[in-house]
Amino acid sequence: MSAAARRLWPYQLALLTALIGAWHALTAAGLLSPFFFGRPLEVARVLGTWFGSGSIFPHLGVTLLETLLAFAGGTLLGVLCGLWLGLSPFAAALLDPYIKAANAMPRVVLAPIFAMWLGLGIWSKVLLGVTLVFFIVFFNVYQGVKDVNPVIVDNARMLGASRRQLLRYVYWPSALSWVFSSLHTAVGMAFVGAVVGEYLGSAKGVGYLILQAEGSFDVNAVLAGIVVLTICALLLDTAVTRLERRLLRWRPGQGDAAHF
Amino acid sequence: MAAVELRGVSVRFAGTSGAYTAIEHVDLDIGAGEFVCVVGPTGCGKSTLLNVVAGLAKPTAGEVRVAGVPLTGLNRAAGYLFQTDALMPWASARDNVAAGLLFRGVARAQALTQADDWLGRVGLRGAGDRYPHQLSGGMKKRVALAQTLVLDPKILLMDEPFSALDVQTRSLMENELLGLWAADRKSVLFVTHDLDEAIALGDRVIVMSAGPGSRPVASHPIDLPRPRDVAEARMSPRFVELQRALWQSLRVEVQKSQRAMAAAG
Ligand SMILES: Nc1ncnc2c1ncn2[C@@H]1O[C@H](COP(=O)(O)OP(=O)(O)OP(=O)(O)O)[C@@H](O)[C@H]1O
Ligand SMILES: [Mg+2]
């Protein structure tokens, strides 16, 4: 976080407080219907009950497990396929129309099919998440590999790099910054996969909780579920940022101040 | 035996608006331990020539021989200093210099020691931990020089290595290069668009004609005494004579080649 961003956080907190305050005032005064918009205090109370009684944890655990598996699996597959297609123009040219079609397709519609194949357990959600994450990471790695400065590749070859060494010392580090920029989007997509999957059919998970709450028109519980998901996604995103800072120290503007 | 021989080398690029012949029928010998400079107008095909000798570009006609052996694939005896920045931005200066040694299977600790040694020799002691974006243009060129020289190549290909430097740094590095070269007499092919630099450094200056179909149109031996100091050499009367003679032949030869081209249609 830059110094400027750090100095801004009291204002950011104030803005949040003001928004929640306005929400509270408008619903309390009856200008917004609490039936549709909920009440902040009620949302807080639901959250308190969930975490106080611990009833949320089995659901949150399942959703997080699905998300992490989807995130890891999708990223791994995306990186492998991206490297492979980025390095073999023939395979890339051959598969090009299929990749374009698969990318253009709204992939969330696959959820019912995955549920049919894999049942209502966690694996149908994981597979949906993997599909969503895969394409984001894949396209970025593919782009990253094709974007490597050819002079750097030629230089490494002149220095004696074998194909494997090129992959390890040139293509991989070059693709890594693209991987990380995609991971921020991918974190969100992994959650989408888990929650949408749960939404379409499950017996556990935060998505299931939200669905239940909607069924009984309990908008406060719906909002509480959204708050929980948002906070988890933010935490995961922060972890990705931390890792990114460590691994991409070489980039301009990454930790320069610490060096000099 | 010549270190590098080019026999009838041509390179054509297939483009969308028709093919373009960059260099055509180039015959050139670089003797063992010889410092050959190549000058020519921009875009004539100097980098293309180096790429061919490096084995990065395949000639569309003709043959390259390295120590008498026809070149197929990369030229393993050559080190190449590219015209544009070619350092790996994700590796520190030390790791960049050590890269070639690691590729060749040298143990990491030893590779890093040798890299530090070479960073010192190009005047960058203590800058090993910096990443390329934390180095100035001249420092990057020095790292690239160390990166190439640490592998001790028999043939050194250099593409306008000093053109981005200010005058002082430039003559400093030119002298450093001459010192390093004097120590173990590599065969050098040095491309520059600066005639003065070519005369100050080389044993021989090759003048290339303007493209398309560029080829060497003159080859001047430089008989300035060695060891040379480039700044002093530039002020010697012999330097001025050579410079005049080279300009003369450059102009004449270029006109000749232009007439030949006009006659050929
Ligand atoms: N890959 C390529 N495809 C098509 N044309 C090319 C390619 N590479 C080089 N050329 C053309 O070949 C000619 C020679 O290029 P080259 O880079 O060898 O010139 P140069 O003498 O090194 O120029 P400079 O002094 O500006 O570096 C140029 O006209 C260029 O447009
Ligand atoms: Mg060039």
Structure overview:
The complex is a heterodimer of chains A (260) and B (265). Chain A has 260 residues and is mostly helical. Chain A has one domain: MetI-like (MetI-like fold), CATH 1.10.3720. In chain A, 83% of the residues lie in helices and 0% in strands. Chain A has 12 helices and no strands. Chain A has helices at residues 3-28, 34-37, 40-53, 56-87, 89-104, 111-118, 122-146, 150-158, 163-200, 206-215, 219-247, 256-259. In chain A, helix 4 runs antiparallel to helix 5, helix 6 packs across helix 7 (122-146) and helix 7 (122-146) runs antiparallel to helix 9 (163-200). The longest helix of chain A is centred in the last third of the chain and has 38 residues, at 163-200. The two termini of chain A are 17 Å apart. Residues 255-260 of chain A have low confidence and may be disordered. In chain B, helix 2 runs parallel beside helix 4 (137-149). Chain B is built from 8 helices and 10 strands. Chain B has a 6-stranded mixed sheet, with helices on both faces. A 4-stranded antiparallel sheet of chain B has the order 2-1-4-5, with helices on one face. Chain B is globular. Chain B is of the alpha/beta class and 265 residues long. Chain B has one domain: Rossmann fold (3-Layer(aba) Sandwich), CATH 3.40.50. Chain B is 40% helix and 22% strand. At the A-B interface, helix 8 and helix 9 of A face strand 6 and helix 2 of B. The site of magnesium ion has 4 residues of chain B, from helix 1. Magnesium ion binds next to helix 1 of chain B.
